[in-house]
Specification:
The chain has nine helices and 16 strands. It is an alpha+beta fold. Strands 2, 3, 4, 7, 9, 10, 11, 12 and 13 form a nine-stranded antiparallel sheet that branches. A three-stranded antiparallel sheet has the order 8-1-16. A hairpin with an 8-residue loop joins β3 and β4 (about 35-40). α4 (about 130-140) crosses α5. The longest helix is centred in the middle third of the chain and has 18 residues, at about 110-125.
Length: about 325
């Protein structure tokens, strides 16, 4: 990964170690949360109005402007909502935690492979993944993975079952979504199990997670939205995700929420917003990469760290290892 030809790794990849399933959406009532019914998508035909910003040539021409504004905007969209007798959304998914981050799934440079293994093994012995595990546990407990469904909820309860043996129950509002410094006994217990799996002390860890959000009778809820690649060719302007006719959230969206633990990027003190672990700190909905400068991106740090060079602080080490837990393809071009 350094400029020395003997250290160039053109094939290098890591499998993800946090493996969430899709999240399935159900409707229930807060006082009888043990029984829930799968939520299905509803197709709506709506007559919208033109509300997007129009070109200046249209804005400045009253005739064209009136023609645009008066023209109806019919659309077909997917929606999802609780029934009139349901006031609570249930989201269920499983999370598998794996170890073996010290072993790349593919690497075509033996010298680099050996150097990286020593570095990763030293990290595990020194930190035992305790910091990362605590942050993942907090993002489970605070219900961050509910995304928009978390906003405006009166109550949120998170139930976690470990390997069908041990159970934890969390009030999501007891835990802040952008602070990871404090943890109670329940968080520490869950984090300990996650850390053991990441460190290889356990062969794997399987968690079943059920989230209950009291949002109100008949209220709309929000599965994942599908990306429409050929706009104008389909008959819907919004398509929601479903699995076997059950409204659902993408596993990728749940995974993004769980790994939103990066408070180590340079501008955090100003922004005070945790971002997802990404090689360049990219937040797509803000159109910004928070780690593209100051040599704080993953590749700049990894190139030094994996070859045995010390990083400036433990935060940089945690960030690098968190990207490897995320997984990805990190090979370097042989032309460099």
């Amino acid at each position: 990964m350094a400029k020395n030809k003997t250290n160039i790794v053109t094939v290098l990849s890591f499998e993800k170690k946090l493996v969430p399933s899709d999240g399935y959406l159900y409707g229930t009532s807060w006082n009888s949360r043990n029984s829930a019914e799968p939520l299905v998508l509803i197709e709506k035909s709506v007559r919208g109005t033109v509300s997007n910003r129009l070109p200046k040539e249209v804005q400045n021409d009253p005739m064209k402007l009136n023609a645009k504004i008066e023209n109806p905007n019919p659309q077909k969209v997917d929606a999802c909502a609780l029934s009139e007798h349901q006031n609570t959304l249930k989201v269920s998914f499983t999370l598998k935690v794996l170890g073996g981050v010290q072993n790349p799934s593919a690497c075509n440079n033996e010298e680099f492979y050996k150097s990286y293994q020593v570095v990763a093994t030293n990290y595990i012995e020194k930190y035992k993944f305790k910091e990362l595990a605590k942050r993942y546990a907090l993002n489970i407990a605070n219900g961050r993975f509910l995304w928009r469904n978390r906003v405006g909820a009166e109550k949120i309860e998170i139930n976690v079952i470990m390997n069908e043996q041990q159970t934890w129950s969390f009030n999501a509002f007891d835990y802040k979504i952008n602070e990871f410094d404090s943890a109670d006994n329940k968080i520490n217990e869950l984090a300990e199990q996650i850390a053991k799996a990441l460190s290889g002390e356990l062969p794997y860890l399987l968690l079943k997670i059920d989230a209950f959000a009291l949002v109100g009778n008949g209220q709309e809820v929000y599965p994942s939205e599908e990306l429409v690649l050929n706009k104008g060719k389909g008959n819907k302007s919004k398509i929601l995700y479903q699995v076997n006719n059950i409204a659902a959230m993408h596993s990728q969206k749940i995974g993004n929420a769980l790994r939103t633990i990066d408070t180590w990027y340079p501008d955090f003190n100003e922004k005070h917003i945790a971002i997802a672990i990404e090689p360049y700190g990219v937040v797509t909905n803000l159109g910004k990469a928070y780690r593209e400068q100051r040599n704080e991106d993953f590749f700049s740090l990894f190139d030094k760290y994996a070859l045995g060079n010390e990083l400036e602080n433990a935060e940089q080490e945690h960030y690098v290892m968190a990207v490897l837990v995320r997984g990805g393809v990190f090979g370097q071009s042989g032309k460099e």
